[in-house]
Amino acid sequence: MYHGPFTNAIVLDYRLAAAQEAAAQAVQQQTGRAQLIEWGCKRGGRPGPTSLFLFSEENPIRRYTRFIIEWPYPFEKTEVYFLGIFCVEASLKILALGFVLHRGSYLRNIWNIMDFFVVLTG
Predict the structure, then answer these.
(1) Model confidence over 79-97: pLDDT tens digits?
(2) Which residues have a Cβ under 8 Å from the Cβ of 90 and sit 6 or more positions away?
(3) Distance CA 112, CA 97 (A)
């Protein structure tokens, strides 16, 4: 067998290629497992839990609503703007109607109480 200067490089290239192939297969297996878990087949192929006892995990309505709530864009950034809008609305109503002491004031209406609670907890 020939043992020249390039023999070690060829052996190392072969080992590197084998390691890369093994890593690619491991990633593919993990991705396959993640896909199975995502679609609810983590219990050995049995169907996953239903939503409201009506919609299975394969139901189009449930898949689309899940897509909407798991949207990749962060909705948390918009929360500050909506809180600002609610604060401005509550402030304007309190200035126009009064806060609580007389008839027809802001906190004498049940919807305004809910709105005020949302503003306080936000």
Answers:
(1) 889 889 999 999 999 999 9
(2) 106, 112, 115, 116, 119
(3) 11
Residue 106: other Cβ atoms inside 10 A = 20
Q: Are 62 and 56 in contact, with CB atoms under 8 Å apart?
A: yes
Tokens of 115: 């709105």
Instruction: Quote the CA–CA distance of 69 and 39 in Å, as a whole number.
Output: 16
Q: Which residue type sits at 56? A: S
Write out pLDDT tens, residues 26-50.
766 666 555 555 555 544 556 678 8
Beta bridge partners of 55: 51
In contact, 35 and 17? CB cutoff 8 Å: no
Global pTM reads 0.45
Neighbours of 116 (CB within 10 A): 19
For residue 16, the tally of other CB atoms under 10 A from its CB is 10
What residue type is 35 in one-letter code?
Q
